[in-house]
Structure formats: structure tokens, C-alpha cells
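Try it yourself: sequence plus glycinamide ribonucleotide, in.
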Amino acid sequence: MKRIAVFASGNGSNYEALACACDEGAIPARVALVVCDRPGARVVRRAADHATECFAFDPKSYASKADYEAEIVRRLDAAGVDLVCLAGYMRICGPTLLGAYGGRIVNIHPALLPAFKGAHAIRDAFDYGVKVYGVTIHYVDDTIDGGRIISQRAVPYEGDDIDELERLIHATEHPLYVETVRRLLTGGPAERNNDETNEKREKI
Ligand code: GAR
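Structure, out:
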């Protein structure tokens, strides 16, 4: 059974979707670890509800990013993690984490990348007057929402209610993340990818 880790900073609805899909067998894996950089976040309680091991840490209590990422890597190794899924983890991955797990880290973003990177993508796209929104899942590099795209899904919306738009986008994120993670873990239809990432992917 493959093992995945989910990194989140807040609500954790994508964690919930992945955990439920694992419980129901839709993803042939289990969530072996949740990593959260905000100990009070709702995702920490969700992890407890699913009895998922959770490493919740305060980045300020470490001397450097390299220090807390080294601790994360130790925990990923101990849990035998095959794939890391960022799900609202609002931090850039540094060299320590990418050095150990690069090519095995994916992220979900609520926009059609490379447009509207950053923490407020839905609001930014809405303010810009976008008519076709969307969701992207991509490999993670050392830039904000950067890395080769794995899957995308469009969300057409021409209304003026941002709450409704957010609901539509989240409702698109959850099944897309489940389908994409299942495909990555089961070696489904090949994604276009570069050689280096393909080589690393063989470890998944
Ligand atoms: C999701 O919409 C995810 O795409 C976004 O954070 C939200 C987390 O929601 N990520 C980014 O904006 C990354 N730049 P969740 O905590 O309910 O899963």
C-alpha cells in the first residue's frame, strides 16, 4: 500500500477529500502523515478525526527553514511516504525538502496556471474579470506555484458572486486531486514531463 503525506496550512478540505478517497479505496494508498505549519488550523482537527499522524509545527520555533524542513524530511522518511501532496500549504519548499523529495511533491492551485499564482488566486482572477476559471495540479519547484503541470480543469463562471465561485472551484478541486493522485500512484496515462522528473517519479 502506497503512502501519501498531505501538507496544509488551513482548512484542509483537500486533505479531507484525499483521506476519504483513501478510506473508500478510490486511491489505493493511505494518508500516512499530515504536515501543518499552523498548529491551530482546522486541518489538524480533521487529521485527528481520521486518526492520521500529524506533525503540526510553528516555523518560528526553528532557527531556519532548513531546520524545520530537515525535521519534516525525517518524518516523511519514518512514515515511508511515496508522494507528498501540498493542499493549501502556504510556504515555498526549500532545498532541504526538494533535495529529498523533489519530483515526488505535487501541489493544487485554484487557477489555470501559469495565470494567477499566489495565495489569493480566486480573488485576483475575479477582480480581473476572468470568464473561465480553473484548477491546476503541478509538480513543485522552488518558486510560488511553479513546476510542470500535471492536470487542469476549467471552471466557466460569468456570475458576480465570489462565494459561489469559490464553492464551484473547491468542488472542482477535490475530485481532480483524487483522480490525479490515483493516476500518479498507479502509473496511469503518462503525463508530459521532463526526463529529470520522470526519473525521480520512478520512486513513487
Ligand atoms: C485550495 O483552494 C488550494 O487550491 C489553495 O488553498 C486552498 C486550500 O483549501 N492553494 C493555493 O492557493 C496555493 N497557492 P483547503 O485547506 O480547504 O484544502
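One thing you can check immediately is this: DSSP finds seven helices and seven strands in the chain.
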